[in-house]
Amino acid sequence: MTADVTAHQPPFRDPQLSFAKRADDLLGRLTPDERIAMLHQFGPAVARLGVAAFRTGQEALHGVAWTGPATVFPQAVGLGASWNEDLVRRVGEAVSREARAMRAHDDRIGLNVWAPTVNLLRNPLWGRGEEGYSEDPGLTAAIAVAYTRGLRGDHPHYWRTAPVLKHWLAHNNETDRATSSASVRPRVLHEYDLRAFRAAVEAGAVAGVMPAYNLVNGRPNHLSPYLREELRTWTQQELLVCSDAGAPSNLVDAEHYFDTHEEATAAALLAGVDSFTDHGTDASTIVARVRAALDQGLIGEPVIDAAVRRQLHVRLALGEFDPDLDPHAHVTDFDTPAHRRLAQEAAEQAAVLLKNDGLLPLDPAAEPRIAVVGPLADECKLDWYSGTLIRSSTPLDGLRERFGPQRVTYAEGADRVRLRCAAGALYVPADDAPTEVRGAEGALDPALLTGRTDLPPLTVDAAAEGTEFALTDWGGGVLTLRAPDARYLSVADDGFVRASADQPGGWVVQETFRLEPHGSGHVLKHIATGGYVSVAADGVKVADEGEIFSVDVVEDGQEAVARVAAAADVVIVVGGNDPHINGRETEDRVTLALPDHQERLWRAARAANPRTALVLVSSYPYAVPEAATELPALVWTAHGGQAAGTALARVLAGDVSPAGRLPQTWYAADSDLPGLLDYDIIGSRQTYLYYDGTPLFPFGHGLSYSSFTYADVSAAVEGDAVRVALTVTNTGSVAADEVTQLYVRALEARVPRPSRELAGHRRVHLAPGAERRLEFEVPLSALGFWDVAHGRWTVDAGRYEFLAGASSTDIRGTATVRIDAEAPVARPVMSAGLAAADYDEQRGTRIVDRSKVSGDAVAPVSGDGTGELVFRDCGFGAGAAEVSVTVSAAAPGAVTLTLADGSPLASLEVPATGGPYAYEVLRAAIEVSGVQEIRAELRGPIRLAEINFTA
């Protein structure tokens, strides 16, 4: 505290007062300029009040990230695969303790952590699928609640860290992510996307949310009316809304939603954004925009005050103003033995046994000769949101440790090549620089892994044999080239090519290339810059035109794999992805297929030795139907963090019976997927909830080294819930975890409902012969759906079947209950009309923004095309004599209304109205009565907001 603060403490420093009173007191002491300055991510100190600088944002998805060495836990999708809330809560506790411990040494470490990501894994081609937990909203919510509780801590007043959920709302594409709009119908919004956020917020361990880059229903998420209409109605707690990086500027620069940044900034504040992450650490631009918006009367001071007040609540909860009372102020738990054990336990619980025809587990007592092959066999990969590894374990490390180094052989399977051009062979010159640059506690300094210029560039010499590079094809022709000293070829800002990167990485990956046929050879394209590898007098660099190279194969990777496979008793092929290549933030995947090179590797291994298992270490699912048919065993695990190799070896050896379960559907082919930008899971039959086909591996799938039976499934309505009970028994010979899954389906649904929906789950450990009676309490509200006819959550009367089993398709027992409820009534169209977005079905339309502030309208997908909306069970009573449509049009169009049998009701020509938000009301005489189905055809560049009827 600075010297100019008097001995008499102001109320904001009085711990006896409520956070609300303290926040109001401090807010009242801040000048208008000081308040405005706090709206930027990096809020400055207020020295005269003894208030320190504050930053929002610290990445902590599966460990403290971007700040150097930390314990690295499995990727978020791997934590989701554990189906274990207790485990995930403990991981959250460890991460938050390390954040506190790191902050004790470096006040740049933030305690407002931006985690977890709760966007649902709707489409497996989404590049950021590794960041989410599941395609199911219930499972995602359960894991998110657990992680946020761990991050928050269990003190009643002071939070260990303050978690912010990402990314609000309906965000599943990196392609055009700053400009694309997700068309999200009300049922999908309420039944799917909002549910993942709501449970975590209601649990009380969430400090706020971060809006996504994309638009929803034509409106940028940073202006989402649902921040006000939904999020802030779920809790009495103040919630902080932090913008995503650069998104405030996108409102003008990329999305062109506003003409000026002052308008955009004001609109974001009015929508509920409280902290602007823009222009890095330089707050001046945002501060100037807020001041200008205030001067122009676009916002008033109360809007700024509300945003600052929410920030102050977070700072108070983090104990900033009560250092002597904060129970977390002196936490030192960093890289402890307990955290190391937890990282291993999490990696073990994340492993999913997809198939096993008896090959696994391997028996260490039999002393098998094991060949470990593949591009990830000796890798411990990190992703964009990882911390720096303090320690690591690869599959090769783990298997050698478990089975003995003399019994494990290795072949990476990469082709060993030399590249030659007319001037000579490409080679890496000797240098005196260190091969690694180390930082604190011996960890690699992440700032020096790529972009190094302290090493000499590659060169070409006609007399030299050339350097032998390990060439790995990661799919789609995307290559990495690694020198014998294990450093990857990389391109720095000066354009020179060097063997300088410890791993591919960075916001823009500089280590990927593509060989393109050219004449009698190939040119080597550098993917990040789009340039080509060329030879200059001062070294090899990237230029507009490249050298023509021949590729001399010194060793064929398939042959090397076949050689070690033939000499082994069993082969473990370890394939998958590098999390920085072909699918990550900013880059969606283009296919579910395993890279061709990896397909060839497992086939070569199997041809040499039928006792071959494929282990996929990846951020996302693959379509591997032939491997699933031809190989005796398949295992999947997300990138498992620092203990990945040890954990995998223990699973393969049977020290741990695998009990991970798939958190998302594995499809058999790309053709099973809808378009990446199709967010209507109901209409396009997406995810396990609606998918009508046969998946390669279903949601919830995962095998065990033991066996389990289910018996005595019962269900009964008790008050406002259904109590379901069942008995699960371990009938195998080994102790193991079983993930019991409970699903429900409506047997008499009047609208499209999920074929099954997860209603509960429990991961339990059972000794051989042991049984456990499990009970699930399912709220009746969980059986409901969003009734678009009446704009409310509804539970219909009828029979509901509860299905208990080991996956969404492996059902072992069922029980049925009947729910009593009011009979449905027709849509009250005479009093409430029809909101266009409240359709039952649609064809060729998209939902758009009715205004820049709130509301929806519907437009044809194509501006010069047509679309159709269907509204069922419209109740007209004694009859309607007039219809009116509220519509805007950029150019002339039409709205035609018909009944279900095609009988015409009204046809209205729509003139150009002067813009998308310039609505007019058009009327026509009609004759209709009773209960009818109304169909509305939209033609041309129009926006239909609503249809109303009068007698």
UniProtKB/TrEMBL annotation:
PROSITE patterns: CBM6. The keyword Hydrolase applies. It comes from the Bacteria. Residues 832-950 form the CBM6 domain. Gene3D superfamilies: 2.60.120.380, Galactose-binding domain-like (2.60.120.260), Glycoside hydrolase family 3 C-terminal domain (3.40.50.1700), Glycoside hydrolase, family 3, N-terminal domain (3.20.20.300), Immunoglobulins (2.60.40.10). Belongs to the glycosyl hydrolase 3 family. Coiled coil: none annotated. CDD domains: beta-trefoil_FSCN_BglX-like, CBM6_xylanase-like. Keywords: Hydrolase, Signal. The keyword Hydrolase applies. Pfam families: CBM_6, Fn3-like, Glyco_hydro_3, Glyco_hydro_3_C. This is Glycoside hydrolase family 3 C-terminal domain-containing protein. One of its GO terms (molecular function) is hydrolase activity. InterPro entries: Actin-crosslinking (IPR008999), BXL (IPR044993), CBM6 (IPR005084), Cellulose-bd_IV (IPR006584), Fn3-like (IPR026891), Galactose-bd-like_sf (IPR008979), GH (IPR017853), Glyco_hydro_3_C (IPR002772). It comes from Streptomyces flavidovirens.
